[in-house]
Amino acid sequence: MRDITTDESIDDILERVAVEAGENSQDNDVASVPVGEHIHALRISSGITLQELAAKTGFSAALLSQVENHMTSPPLGMLVKIANAFETSVSALIGGRKESAYSIVRKEDRSTVSRVELKGGGKAEYSYEALGTGKAGHRMEPFLVKLAPNPDPNSPRSVHEGEEFLYVLSGRVEIFLGDYSDQLEEGDCIYYNSTTPHHVHSIGDGEATLLAVIHQGK
Length: 218
Fold this sequence. Notes:
Blueprint: H1 10-21, H2 35-45, H3 50-57, H4 61-68, H5 76-85, H6 90-94, E1 111-114, E2 126-130, E3 141-147, E4 163-170, E5 173-177, E6 180-184, E7 189-193, E8 198-202, E9 208-215
Antiparallel strand pairs: 1-2, 2-3, 3-9, 4-7, 4-9, 5-6, 5-8
Helix pairs in contact: 1-4, 3-4
């Protein structure tokens, strides 16, 4: 890492550190949607610094810088908080289309956001596809979510405004809601307040696929 110069702002330093930390990464699982670039562009156009965005979302400036520089892809709960900070939708952050009174998203046109390779090795546990981009004034955010097994019971819980509905299309998942936990199989569904600390992951050896509908609480 180069020495810090007096001409660099804190934002410049955080961005450079995030980029340099990924210089040796051989990650081939690159997200098809540059959500980090979209967040960065929106932040710059809004005149908001990383520190100001950190204060609005509760995430550290270093983590937000990693997101903007494709060092990590944000989970849906994080995107909800970032979107609410900008008073926009998750679909807009992902990179939606021109909005109209209705939205048809063809299978081949679905926007996929994949979790990228982790700095410590291994892969994060899910990817998601936006299913409702282009609908003007929408209150729901539908996604197709693919979950990989995660045996760690201490995985971080997500907390944000709004509500979530999950429907298991295939596989088996375990969900944590505060002190409560349960297992859901194909055809099962759950509806809960996103203000309850929550986490969901696939169980068993295979991937699970969910239909997730999120209300941002705006």
